[in-house]
Structures are given as structure tokens and as C-alpha cells.
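[job 4471] stage=fold_predict status=RUNNING
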Amino acid sequence: MSTSTQPKTPTAKGPEEWFDGDVYFNSYYAGQEPSRVRLNLVRFTPGAHTAWHTHAVGQTLHVTEGAGFVQSRGQELIELRPGDTVHTPAGEWHWHGAAPDQFLSHLALWEAPAGDEPETVWGDKLTADEYPSARKD
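[job 4471] inference complete, writing C-alpha cells
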């Protein structure tokens, strides 16, 4: 086996059922067996964010640009800035996305599970009270 460049993929728009607002991603790496590593660059427009979701083997985000948030269900809201790296453990319901007035770009790193289990399970979209711009604090 020798070193090789990865095939380039076009930018894709995130599906409406997974995201509120406009989200775009580039798939940079999908490891070949035995590797199950995945790496995407994800770009959120201001206010755009994911629905609640879980990852079978967890997920690590590294913020490259902008400002945003990540939150696990029932936990404190974490503000994200360039250079921040956060990890969400396997099976933990969470969401992440841009601040209301800022773009957000992050690298998303995760592993596909062994077997037939889905990589990501998508749940409900956030309610108006769950996204920080709608809070009345």
C-alpha cells in the first residue's frame, strides 16, 4: 500500500430534516477498512444548526472559523470559537451550530460503527426555547 491523495467531493447542502438554516459540508475522508474514520468540513450560516442527534462511536468537532454552540441534552450550553475542540461521547444526544449573528465552520471527526448500526441517529429539531437566540434569559 502506498500514500495516495483522497478523491475530491463536491460541496453538499445539508438536508432540511437534519438542519435548521443553511448548512454545507465537504466530505474530506472516509477511511477504507479496517479504518472507519470519517472527516467532514461543515459550514453553518448564521443561526443554522443541527437537529438533536447521536453518533454510534462519538464525535469530535474542531472549530476553524466563526462562533457557535454545542450542547448535550440536559447539559450546559458550550460556546465555540476558533481553535476549540469538543468531544461528544457515543450515544449522547446533542446539537451544534452557528451563533445567531455569525458563521461557523468546524471539522467533524467520527468513526463508523462496526456492523450494521447507523453512524448517526437523527432526532427532533430544536424548539424555539432550545436555541440560544430565542431564550428569554
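[job 4471] summary: The first strand starts at residue 12 and ends at 13.
[job 4471] exit 0
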